[in-house]
Amino acid sequence: MALDRRTFLRRSCLAATAMAAGPKWLAAGLFDRRASSDTDTILVVVQMAGGNDPLNTLVPHADAAYRAARPRIGLTAAQTLPVDSRTGLHPNLVQLHRSLGSGNLAIVQGVGYPAPDLSHFNSMEYWHRASLLPKRTGWLGDTLDQLYGGERTPLLHAVAVGGDMPPSFESTEVASTVLFDADSFDFPPDLFYPEDSAVERSAFSASLAPVGSAAQDFVAGAGEVFLRDSAAIRGAATSYREAVPYPTSDLAQALKLVAAVISANVGPRIFWVTQGGYDTHDSQRGPEGQDGLLADLDASVGTFLEDLRGHTQDRRVLILTWSEFGRRVEENGSSGTDHGAASLLFVLGSRVRGGLFGTPLSLTDLDPDGNLQFTTDFRSVYASILRNWIGADPVPILKGNYPTIAFV
Amino acid sequence: MPSVSWNRQRAAHLLRRAGFGATPQELARALTEGREATVDRLLDFERTSTADLEARLAAFRFDLTTFYDSSDSRNYEQFVNLSRWWILRMVYSPRPLEEKLTLFWHNHFATSYGKVDTPPLLYAQNQLFRRLGAARFESLLLEVAKDPAMLFYLDNNTNVKESIQENWGRELLELFTMGVNRYTQTDVRAAAAAFTGWTTQFEPPYAFFVDASEHDAGPKTFLGQTGNLDGADIIAILARRPETAEFVTTKLARFFLGRNPRRRLARRLQDLFLSASGDIRAVVRAILLSDEFDESADKSDQVKSPIEFCVGALRALGTTTDGASPLEFGSLIGQTLFLPPNVAGWPAWTYGTTRWINTGAYAGRLLFAESLAAAIPGEASSWWQPRDFFPATLGSADALIDFLAERLSMPPPSAALRRALAAYLGQMGTWRWNVEDVADRWGRGAVRLALSCPEYQLQ
Which chain B positions have a beta carbon within 8 Å of A209's beta carbon? Predict the structure, then answer.
């Protein structure tokens, strides 16, 4: 049951590209805005949406409980990439396995939060807000406010590639940029009278004046930020020459755009990309299940890191992956797994201290609903990155003092 | 309510929120008929004939019922045509609220071609929403539980008694009826067990049937009720729960009000749902006739969904369209019919409609606006004729913006928009709109700017 999504997206993009192709009449002077120096550290977040199964990612193949729970979808020791005598990585995580060997991949095990309710949407909210209580802003939005709030001229600090603004970016003061791709991220030239494009852009810009209505001013604000950032981002993308060819997947293409913006030094320190599909209730081992997704993740992130090395940008960059929850220990009747609780995540980068962190998940000491119990609060991961990589104070952002982890 | 509260602004607002905007004739009719009669006409849509619409659709000769394997290119073509078929309905239907409710249920019972990949099943599900979208909630829910597209999407077709699959059971409680955390994990498992064996044939047409050999017929306890419960029992229990009444009516109210109803209206809708056996039509009528809905006309603070944005523009310009453009722009504008992001539907309809807009999604709307404004006959799949659209007599920028605001069903234009358009038109040098060059250059430009401005994104 496969949508030819790639074909679909390509068609959409072709329509857009055809539209966007036109004279590049925007002022080049907008390019040299720099929000932060080109040695500032950068965080790239990869959201693995849907709930990644930890037990088929870092496989406890020596555990009898694992083999008993996964008669059809389980992986054997021989199938996995060796980590230690009891565990191995999913066979499709080839490049991540190499990073683990070279000490640039940290795997944080048993990540979660208290009293999980197995809802995708609640769980994502907790992770985005870094709060188990409802909250309007996100953990990275709060970080942006702390670092860049009150700027006289608001600059470009955070970029999400994809269709949606990640709630993690929602802030009080600092607006982030979201783009689907670079081609579409331009004020469209007038197709009939190209010479009118500049005056139409000015008129559009003038129509964005605040009027005192929250909704209208919100929309106008997005228009302002779009006009502010489109030239810088399109400039970065069109002039970029990647050091290694990227795969064609949406995730890889999004990371390529991130690499281009990083290399162009136009300011942003925080990036977001999303890979969906991890809600593997059925056919988890198939090419469209977790097996295929992890292969895509591995190839995309591996290429991205290699490209960053080629541009000597790798030492500035730390990659964090996360997924809203793990999955049930036992496989279900559809060769998949249902919603679970604790999971794991990856932290990668040339300056990351690699290895396994946190306590391994126990497959026998389960919570009252039969789910894996977390051993590391996800906010400890955030605290470590904020304090020791981004240089922000995590305490007000996380509303608490969470112990840091030594991966960075 | 006294008829004194009925005016041009409120009528236009109703026709935007309960439809996709109005022509001047439709607005005049609503003003003459009054508020309640207009709401009744919109809502009792069976009284309005769709013969012209069906004739128009028949001319496209869409094949939406033949099953093609997912590897067959005709499968994707059929998905495109299914989207076009629905867009054409929205653009040309004389029953806009029927299509709006279908859109509401498509979001509520979100089902994606990305997983189902069988357009005839999505077509059947869409027709189910059109058939029962204003009926009793329990009837709708029971049909959704048996709907092959939903059975595939949430995997209940593989939910069997030896190996229970929770996907449908969980989302049924969390997203379709009660709302999260108003039940226990044990209730989720009991619901899943009750639906074991509710499956589809292996071959087209993938008809629903209950496979008794895979059904767990034993006793279960669900929300405190114990018995040999099956799926229909679960539906019957859920449809009568006050939590369901609150969850569903709040979501309906949010769809039309643009935000959660206040306590008093929320309570009234919940009581109405329970006393009227879940009559959706009665709930929607109460929402559209509420004081809160009237108040919402005073500040248009709901961001249009991308589909509402596209359809509204196509309708307002009197476009001749093949229905393809909203799909072509779907990824850029942030909404593609039959491809909701996940089972919870589009987050903007849950968390607040400003989520429809971000820098990239706005850029996508600007592209759509320019592509439509510039579309000429013979070269585009959607086109309109500026020389026919503009009257010859618009002698000032203000007259032009008033004309556009009415014809495009816009909320009242801001002073900033008036100034922006005046500055733009200041370079025109003539006001003769019936001259082709003038209408093509400045008319299309003005329409492009009107469709792009912040006001037009709101309703």
Answer: 414, 416
